[in-house]
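Lecture 7, part B: from sequences to assemblies.

Below are the input chains for today's worked example.
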Amino acid sequence: MPELPEVENTRRYLVEIGLPGKTIALATIGWANTVKHPSLEDFVLDLPGGTIQKVARRGKYLLAPLDTGQTWVLHLGMTGGLRIHPRTQPPPAMVRHTVDFTDGTQLRFIDPRKFGHLWLVDDPAQATGKMGPEPLSEDFNDAALALVLSNRTAPIKALLLEQHIIAGLGNLYADDALYRAGIHPERPASGLSPEEISRLRNSIVQALEHSLSQYDQSRRDHWPDPPFGLSPWLIPRSPDAPCVRCGSGTMEQVKVRARTTFYCPVCQPPTP
DNA sequence: AGTACGTCCTGATCGC
DNA sequence: TGCGATCAGGACGTAC
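Predicted structure of the full complex, as structure tokens:
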């Protein structure tokens, strides 16, 4: 379940371990469906020779522009993870794809469920599609959030998961943000007051930044092989667990758009 | 246009 | 103890 903090953690890992500047020698794809563009044949033909200029992130996508002018785009899906090791080091379990560099190191794409995707494109938008504002950027303000939520009757939780509304949130951080904000996940989005929208925006930022700071510490503690485990979030994710926010409620579990959703009925009442 | 649901995947967990 | 069924969900495609 890599969401924005996990993908950003991966980006920082890749930068710190020195991916920018490496030149690709060989791409080995173990599951053809992972490559979305161009064809598998063209992907493995065109990627080698490129030198990585930098590693950027847009939502949950990692963007690695090459000196060829094309951009190598990676999405970790639900179970994806990336590691760079010397090619001679035994690979971790569940490595689906590898990319060898000319300096003797190798990127390992670990992905048990094969939901990850790769692209090689001229324009990153070919891979990412239309994306909403980055929640940790200046573009993400109360007015912008209010605008995209207006006239939407869908549950607020469902909209938080749409990448063209806000980039980078997934199931866990959507729940965590709503929990921090004290907003019921099934409230119709258009029914939120300006105060609630402001609280929600702040809560999204806090949830993400809290997690990012934990990942920064974890990378320092475990360098050069930080663990894949998820950073602990505030919201208890088990039914009937005591609410750590109000201390009196017990967590409820429901499905919102087929996604497991937790909330505290006391902190997050169904009506304002 | 907005909303809802099925599909892809397989390791982990559950129930009998 | 073993084995089949179920669950997990990011993004996209399809249907209404």
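Note for the exam: Residues 31, 33, 77-79, 94, 111-115, 151-154, 158, 257-258 of chain A lie near DNA strand B (CB under 10 Å from a C1'). Keep this in mind when comparing with the next example.
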